[in-house]
Amino acid sequence: MAVKHSGLDFSKEDPKRVGVSLGTTMGEPQILEQCIEMLYEADGASDSIPENLPRQYPCGVIPANVASHFNACGPAIMIPTACAAGNYAIGYAFDLLGLGLADVVIAGGSDPISKIAFTGFNRLLATAKEVCKPFDKNRDGMAVGEGAGMLVLESLSHARKRGASAAIIAEVLGYGIACDAHNMTIPDPSGSGGILALRKGLKSANIAPDAVDYISAHGTGTKENDKTETFIIKAVFGDRANKIPVSSLKSMIGHTMGAASAIEAVACCLMIRNNTILPTINYSEPDPDCDLDYVPNTARSAKVNRIVSNAYAFGGNTSALVLGKYED
Amino acid sequence: MRTSVEQKLVITAMSSVSSLGKTEADMAASLSAVPKTGMVQDFGFHRLATPQPCFCLSDFDPEAILGKKGLRTKDRATKLLLATVETGFKDLFETTAEDARPGICIGSAFGSVQSIGDFLSDAIVNGAHNVNPMAFPNTVINAPTSNANIRYSSRMSSSTVATGFNAGIDALIYACTYIRAGHADSMIAGGLEEISYYWLAGCAKSGVLSASGTMMPFGVDRDGFLPGEGCAVFYIETEEHAAGRNAAIIAEIAGMCTCFDPKLDGCGACQAMTGACSSAGVEPAAIGFVSASANGSPTGDAVEAQAIARLFPNTPVAAYKAKTGECYGASATLSLACAISDMANSRISGTGAPYSTGGICNLVQETRHHVRPKFALINSFSCDGYCASLVLKNRK
Fold it and tell me: Which residues of B touch A314 (CB under 8 A)?
């Protein structure tokens, strides 16, 4: 859909200048699940496992399939940095284009629903009993989801050359990545990695904190994440933090793991284009630890020229993607 | 920091753990010896039907390198990476202020598929409500890298790359791209892979393992590969950054190219090799030797041999996988470490056990001594279509 929407005709592109950059948490876990279930059904014998099934498992197969489908012969990569992977993949695509190593990069993230994620987050008591309520006082966890978000990124000169500058949806201004280096599952309460990623993102985009109109939060709905993310936003934006609308799309579509930040990037592009800020739904009771403007329950009309999209992950991986309205 | 694809990038430290040993001296000695293989069969929840010959690290003792603390919940992949980083970079991290410590980027095809598969097996055997929640964090593919960030308080970045056989070389190229884009002036980068039941069972099912139990890159009688495991990690920095801290330069990453070959017909291999030479500003004739990606695959080796013959008809070809096995995400980075070792010792290591190639390429079988190549080309071509090459420049 992204490629169709871009209007690109790949038969007219130099395949060597078209790249693919994707992110994921699990890749294709259902393949491994099937294989292991077959093993147990056959008392450890692998006879019933189809020959071509195991080779579909490694997550590197996903960008390979995309590159093959579109005959993209430029750089192709899978960056499996868990729930922040989409931002990492879009960031790498941004660098490939910025350094002139590609003209077009298909970038995004994908994750299917997996028993591993569902079981694991349940065992960590990190899933919501009913609905996901990011930043609400009574939030009790995430809702595991699945999906994919894809963008077609191209250099401005390439877009102009093919006469597509009028169709530009948004501009990637920069990104920042960092790491808490604290714990595999719990965010650093001091927000070290999140603060660093956000500051690096703003620096990379060459914009001041004052220029940010909206923040798409990681906002998982867990006690620790939402409290820490609020702290991070306040640390970076200071007194202006409570004037910037912040919302969590995960309240509406669940946590789609490695796809989440890519889907959020797609939504951010549309928010820029439509001058609309999507809300945090299921919000009813303010939490003293989460005291920002979370755009509760209802979308808001507003001019949105500069957006920061946060994404954090297991391992303490942190990221901030900065998107902006394209101005000729 | 400067942004430029022409910014010079150098390697100033390296460390590896593989069947070739744990130190540079081990590697230099093992490269001139006959390859050593071991056997694996039991993996906790599962057992291979028959013992599998492989280049495993049967004497790997992580506690001896890392101490006991904090290892209880770590899997083999993480321990391999931590042991490699501890051996080569502990001092670098400890003598660098926390806010200036380099970020880490590691390539691995699977992360720890042993952890992922065991988590699922545990859920089947003991019930989903009884699986060990402490095992869950190991199921994310970035777990080894992030564990290294945690152990060494490395906050500047943590990235993982997973492009099959090419994960390690693509992690190096990711790091170089990240530096050249102006995000950092140095990075720790490398490749990693553990031997695991699920990987071996999958390979057996896919028919890619050598039925004869031999590893003969470019051999006439090649019939697949023997798996291996290991990790190789490098400190990559801009030349200016290295000069600023008076670091000795081991080698320069003079050129690189990563691309994709949808048809698997060798066009991607040629594109990667010519692209790497072009970005290094050298003619193919200047390459002193090629480190091949060949692993004994009947089709893959033939495609690479044809591509090398087209571009480097008279250049010696080293096949280090004959001595490390096919280590997937670690393979190309181990080959890079071997090439650096060979350059330092003015030689090109042979495969160790002579076999017929039928003249498919200029494979070095008997080690050549007293050679002083200025440039080497490191190849990595995966069966999925990922193709990458690096040009290494000897700076010693």
Answer: 137, 140, 142-143, 146
